[in-house]
Design goal:
Family: Belongs to the CoaE family.
Bound molecules: dephospho coenzyme A, adenosine-5'-triphosphate
CATH topology: Rossmann fold
GO molecular function: ATP binding; dephospho-CoA kinase activity
Distance between the termini: 48 Å
GO biological process, one term: coenzyme A biosynthetic process
Order of helices and strands: EHEHHHHEHEHHHEH
Keywords: ATP-binding, Kinase, Membrane, Nucleotide-binding, Transferase, Transmembrane, Transmembrane helix
Shape: elongated
Strand content: 5-15%
CATH architecture: 3-Layer(aba) Sandwich
Largest sheet: 5 strands, parallel
Number of helices: 10
Number of strands: 5
Pfam families: CoaE
Oligomer: single chain
C-alpha cells in the first residue's frame, strides 16, 4: 500500500479536496479530524492541555474551547510549540492505526490530509507523493475570515503560523490551484485522481518485472554452471 500526502495552507481547501477524493472512491484520513478526537475529555492529551494551559481553555461541559486555545497558540509561538508537543505524538499514533486499518482493508493507496506536513517534516519519508492545495494569499485570507468569523489581524496571525504556501508548492509533486471557482478545482482533482490511479498501477507492475528479470538471470547463471565444463 502507498501513502499519498495532501497538504496546503490554512483554509486553502484541503478538506474540500479530500472530500472529493473520498467521493471518487479513495481511502482518506483527515488529520484535523484525528486532532479533534484525541483532545476529547478522558483522553491523555485533554488532561495535559488543561495542566499546561489552565482551566481557562475549557468550555462549561469540559470540552476544549477551541476558539480560546486557537487565539492563544496562533499568537504565541512558544504556546503553539507546547500544544504541538502534547498533541502531535497522540495524533501520530492514531494516524498509524487508521493507516493500518486501510492496509487490512486491502486498499492500494490512502490519501492523508496532513496540514503541517512540511512544518514537521517527520512523515515525508513515508509518502510516495505529496499533493499541495494552493490558493493565492488574498483568497486564503478572505475564505479564512469568512469561515471562522475572524478579523483580518487574527486571520493573518493564523496564516503566519505556517510555512508560506508558495514554499510548499515548490516541495510538492502535484499542485491543485484552488484560487478560482470550485468547478475548476474539481476538474483538476479529477484529472489528478486519474493520473494517480494510472501511475500507482505501474508500481506493482515494475516490481513484478524486476522480480521476473532477477529470476531469469539466476536461472541462466545456474544453467551456464551446469552446462559449461568446470575448470
Ligand atoms: C488550535 C486549535 C484548538 C484550533 O482549533 P480550530 O477548530 O479553530 O481549528 P482546526 O483544528 O479545525 O484547524 C484548522 C487549521 O488550523 C491550522 N492549525 C491547527 N493547528 C495548528 C498548529 N499547531 N500550527 C499551525 N497551524 C495549525 C491547520 O491548517 C488546520 O487545518 C486546533 O487546531 C488544535 O488543537 N491544534 C493542535 C493540533 C494540530 O497541530 N493540528 C493540526 C494538524 S497536525
Ligand atoms: N474554490 C472555492 N471557492 C469558494 N470557496 C471555497 C473554495 N474552496 C474552498 N472554499 C471554502 O473555503 C473554506 C476553506 O476550505 P476548506 O475547509 O476545505 O480548507 P482547509 O484547507 O481544509 O482548511 P483548514 O486548514 O482550516 O482545515 C471553506 O469555507 C470552503 O467552503
Amino acid at each position: 500500500m502507498f501513502l499519498v500526502g495532501l497538504t496546503g495552507g490554512i483554509a486553502s481547501g484541503k478538506s474540500s479536496v479530500l472530500q472529493l477524493f473520498q467521493q471518487l472512491g479513495c481511502a482518506v484520513i483527515d488529520v484535523d479530524v484525528i486532532a479533534r478526537h484525541i483532545v476529547q475529555p478522558g483522553y491523555p492529551a485533554h488532561r495535559r492541555i488543561v495542566e499546561a494551559f489552565g482551566p481557562e481553555v475549557l468550555l462549561e461541559n469540559g470540552d476544549i474551547n477551541r476558539k480560546v486555545l486557537g487565539d492563544l497558540i496562533f499568537k504565541q509561538p512558544n504556546q503553539r510549540q507546547l500544544l504541538n508537543a502534547i498533541t502531535h505524538p497522540e495524533i501520530c499514533k492514531e494516524m498509524m492505526k487508521e493507516t493500518f486499518k486501510c492496509f487490512l482493508q486491502g486498499r492500494r493507496y490512502v490519501i492523508l490530509d496532513i496540514p503541517l506536513l512540511f512544518e514537521t517534516r517527520k512523515l515525508l519519508r513515508y509518502l510516495k507523493r505529496v499533493i499541495v492545495v494552493y490558493c493565492d494569499r488574498d483568497t486564503q485570507l478572505v475564505r479564512l475570515m469568512e469561515r471562522n468569523g475572524l478579523s483580518l489581524k487574527d486571520a493573518e496571525a493564523r496564516i503566519q503560523a505556517q510555512l508560506p504556501l508558495k514554499d510548499k508548492v515548490r516541495m510538492a509533486n502535484h499542485v491543485l490551484d484552488n484560487s478560482g471557482q470550485w468547478s475548476d478545482t474539481r476538474r483538476q482533482a479529477i484529472l489528478l485522481h486519474a493520473q494517480l490511479e494510472r501511475s500507482l498501477e505501474y508500481l506493482p507492475l515494475r516490481l513484478g518485472v524486476l522480480v521476473g528479470l532477477a529470476s531469469i538471470t539466476s536461472f541462466l547463471y545456474l544453467l551456464a554452471r551446469c552446462l559449461l565444463p568446470s575448470p
